[in-house]
């Protein structure tokens, strides 16, 4: 940093208003993250909610900021936080995500049977509950993540998908292609809050990093942690596989913030 400061000083340039290295990228779009300064000089962080959910608040150079996860289906335009009960507005900009068409030969996974639908419904409840975890006790040690698996990023977050020409939900995570058995490492410290073998997501692990920041790992071949385990940055949690609805082995990695699934790439370098 010293050499950078010297260079900048020498050139007589002002340092740009860079976001702290410990924050996700500020991208107020559907499926993105808004970093909203809170103009509060209090010692204790203000209480912030968005659509009725608690929001992560962190200390930045300018004081407190809310780090808000925006849902993929969010409307463009003005959104409101409640900061200590008072409204604070921020703007959500448009973003057009690319389109993807997939052919899936296992028809049962495209048009599930009634029994499958019952299973899928109860699993969805468990998955939502895990993704909506908000633990007050431990604040996240970092709001930047390490890459959980080395590999090609085969499918980005937000793709508008069609399976056998039927429209499906947009892609709610980042896919990283890697052979079955490739180790997966925790991208930050946290606590395992759920594991399971789900119809669509296959073998999955959910890590709560604190204050509404939760990560999910899907289609795993093996799960090597259990609910309640504390994991540290870089800890082995299991291996890449092809369980659930997949066309080949890969890690589907999702990041939830205040219950909304957001682009994992905003948290990595
Ligand atoms: Zn995926």
From TrEMBL:
Instruction: Determine if Transport is one of this entry's keywords.
Output: no
Q: Does the keyword field hold Magnesium?
A: no
Segment forming the signal sequence: 1-21
List, in alphabetical order, the Gene Ontology terms for molecular function in this entry: metalloendopeptidase activity
Ranges for domain Peptidase family M23 N-terminal come to 26-95
Q: Which positions fall inside the M23ase beta-sheet core domain?
A: 170-264
Q: Which CDD domains match?
A: M23_peptidase (cd12797)
Q: Which key words are in the record?
A: Signal
The record's listing under InterPro entries reads: Cell_wall_metabolism_enzyme, Dup_hybrid_motif, M23ase_b-sheet_dom, Peptidase_M23_N
One Pfam family in the UniProt entry: Peptidase_M23
This one is known as Peptidase M23
Query: Which species?
Result: Alkalilimnicola ehrlichii
